[in-house]
Design goal:
The structure is a homodimer of 460-residue chains. The first copy, chain A, is α+β, with helices and mostly antiparallel strands. The first copy, chain A, folds into 2 domains: 158 residues, Creatine Amidinohydrolase, Chain A, domain 1 (3-Layer(aba) Sandwich); 293 residues, Creatinase/methionine aminopeptidase superfamily (Creatine Amidinohydrolase), CATH 3.90.230.10. Helix content of chain A is 39%, strand content 11%. Chain A is built from 17 helices and 13 strands. The radius of gyration of chain A is 24 Å and the shape is globular. Chain A starts with a helix and ends with a helix. At the A-B interface, α3, α6, α10 and α15 of A face α3, α6, α10 and α15 of B.
């Protein structure tokens, strides 16, 4: 963890920003898998971690905006707990390391929260268990908890968490480096006849060996055209592409989020290489476009035009690229956003509301298919860390639907598309820090060009 | 999955048992890790699975006790869903395979449940999200949902799920066999200088390669004296014991739950062997005591006496073993229950209430330290599957507390205990089916005797 003054500084900025009332940050409890006693691996709430909350279940913290005092709520272990979970540092010790002013038992939170009445500021919740806990503590109805969060608190949290400090960048670099090693291992080991699950097992094993977990569900599939495909049941066949989108969390729970796509064979086919080069161009040029003051939506649209232009060269799109992208025709092939903030969450702060994180008064969200999925749109600032992850996919179900509707027929060569039905999908993704002067790709380089990928596949 | 008539038979038995009202079984939704869009791996509710519910998020089913009709509630995927998750069999197809009479959209559940009014029978919930969903569907208050479950429904579900069919036993055997291979791999690979996490990574990797997940958090530690130790940060040192308690789920989510303990070195020390043999005796004799009609609590107490007697031989306990166990003195070394039911849940049906699953009107729960943790106590029946998992642990914090209180000083040689402070813990566990005539250990044999374990360690 970071130093006590770091956490104290973050909490006192919250108190200053809010100016009134009692700030309540809720730590997670264990998430039940199939019964209370059999939880998923514990994942602490990211904002709770950011403001110094210990990485153990069942806690909460308050910050009194009037006095600036911060209190950690929780119960020390009993001897019976120790028999089951082993000796642990006390909450008092943990609280001291994070610079809290006081530790109180959990039952005190009920009276403290109810004393503050309507002036309790809390964040939106993403677990039903926390809805019920906050309702119990504040004496409000659960249905009111889901809508009664504090927008002022969200803004204050987002403004701090959006700008990564040097020590946060170091954590993220660790996560990206491990993620990169995971990708290199998968690229080395993949071969015809293996199952996707054999490769996924490398990924989980490498995380486990470092005592961390994947930052999100592993995508590792020859069906790369399915954007969030978490099944690993296919056998790798010659002629296919493997799309791997996975990353590790650091021990402090900062995420890495990397995607690479490579052929099951040692070489890309010409057809694969053509499409790959378009995605690679879009990725590299998007990264190079990153600098403070540029709206991320403009980079997204720029990438979309590179993709439309490239697909036109291949003969799959036609007409004016600017018009095609303005109409949303490229979204048949590139139906998702170019990227998102990344930090303690892989989609950083998504629990606080994508529009409050990625959009602002200058840039409003579109409802156009494809662009609507763009999670980050606003102007970049030094200290932002984000993903750049363009892709081109051939999604049979979507192609069939659009063709039957003759959708964007001015921009799409549906007849030429037939030969690409089983192509799959290609995505390439890196994690990028916005610096004062431009950008920096986090972590050690991971093979990315056709030559680099083929060279790695050849050394096997 | 099993055949449609199997699921229809199970549901119609529920309807007959209940006799009135509308039975509502709730499928799980995705469990949020750090925001809604980043869920843990999906785990369907076990009772929902048992009664034919498909293994996908966001569903529910009802069974009308008057007509016997069963309805599956859920929403078909949209084209936008398919872009993200890929094409899937329709709910209609899934429902047909499980013999449902009808599929209705989720919004119909609100009117259907409210029409049934007070006569909706549902099971206890272990996820806050489901509390909120049931409250919304039934129009009741969330705080009432947590207490308003149907005890009649619990009894009916428990009576069916407690008796495993041959096809269930086949699934469980698959899970135990994979779990056994995981243990053998760990025993083969373990050596001085490796980290616990290196071994844990073998376990997760082997599960991932089979497209399944561990049935519960992996315990794999040189600190075996901590009963539920999920940290894997220690480095294996010569002279230590490694306790591994882990198992896989089958693809249909039946659990395996196996424990083995072995030395980091190739041989047990004499001191380790002495204690190991006591645990092994307790395990083997407990298994051999299993047959219909015997109360599991009696087998637990028998195991406790074997442990007390063995520790007396070693010089760590003294006095009369029957008296020591009746007083609870053995619980310093054996503080947990001998085992539990196992099936779709590793602690089978624990969400329905341990006392309603493991106890009955003949056998009531004790509040004595140690015995209070016994999850199964009632008389065994053919078709029960349960774990047998005695252990001996040297828990410094517990020893210190008991000694300072002079607790059970008539039965415990506290002075001799000093040399065992860093011993760790030993547990041995198998999964056992109760047959008409006695018992059957599930799965292929896994090295268990000192000779077998040392032979395996020697072939490395």
């Amino acid at each position: 963890m970071f130093s006590a003054p770091t956490y104290q500084g973050r909490r006192s900025r919250l108190a200053t920003d809010l100016g009134n009332g009692l700030i309540l940050l809720v730590g997670n409890i264990d998430a039940s898998m199939n019964y209370r006693g059999n939880p998923y691996h514990f994942r602490q709430d990211s904002s709770f971690l950011y403001f110094g909350g210990p990485d153990v279940p069942g806690l909460a913290m308050t910050i009194d905006t009037a006095t600036g005092r911060s209190i950690l709520y929780g119960d020390e272990l009993t001897i019976e707990d120790i028999v089951w979970v082993g000796p642990q540092p006390t909450l008092q010790e943990k609280a001291r390391k994070a610079g809290f002013d006081e530790v109180r038992t959990m039952d005190r939170l009920v009276s403290d929260a109810q004393k503050a009445g309507d002036k309790v500021h809390y964040l939106p919740t993403y677990r039903g268990d926390n809805v019920l806990r906050i309702a119990r503590w504040t004496g409000r109805k659960p249905e009111d908890i889901q809508t009664g969060f504090s927008e002022a608190l969200i803004h204050s949290v987002v403004s701090q968490r959006s700008i990564k400090s040097d020590e946060e960048i170091a954590e993220m670099t660790w996560a990206v480096d491990l993620s990169g090693r995971m990708h290199v291992s998968v690229m080395r080991e993949a071969e015809e006849g293996l199952k996707e699950s054999d490769l996924a097992s490398l990924v989980t094993g490498m995380c486990e060996a470092e005592e961390v977990t994947p930052a999100y569900g592993i995508i590792l599939s020859v069906d790369g055209q399915t954007l969030h495909n978490h099944h690993h049941g296919n056998t790798l066949e010659s002629g296919q592409l493997v799309l791997g989108d996975f990353g590790a969390e650091s021990r402090m729970h900062y995420a890495g989020d990397i995607t690479r796509t490579f052929p099951v064979d040692r070489h890309f086919t010409n057809k694969q290489r053509e499409v790959y080069e378009v995605v690679l161009d879009a990725e590299i040029l998007s990264i190079e476009a990153c600098k403070p003051g540029v709206a991320y939506r403009d980079i997204h649209l720029h990438a979309a035009r590179i993709i439309a232009n490239g697909l036109k060269d291949i003969g799959l799109m036609k007409g004016d690229c600017h018009e095609a992208v303005a109409a949303g025709a490229h979204a048949l092939f590139f139906p998702h956003g170019l990227g998102h903030m990344i930090g303690l969450d892989v989609h950083d702060m998504e629990d606080l509301g994508e529009n409050l994180v990625g959009y602002d008064s200058d840039v409003k969200r579109s409802d156009q298919f494809g662009l609507a999925y763009l999670r980050l749109a606003r102007k970049l600032q030094p200290g932002f860390v984000l993903t750049i992850e363009p892709g081109i996919y051939f999604i049979p179900e979507l192609i069939d639907q659009w063709r039957s509707e003759k959708k964007h027929a001015d921009f799409i060569n549906y007849s030429a598309l037939e030969k690409y039905r089983n192509f799959g999908g290609i995505r390439i993704e890196d994690n990028v820090l916005i610096t004062e002067k431009g950008y920096q790709i986090l972590g050690d380089p991971i093979p990315k060009t056709v030559a680099e990928v083929e060279a790695l596949r050849y050394t096997v």
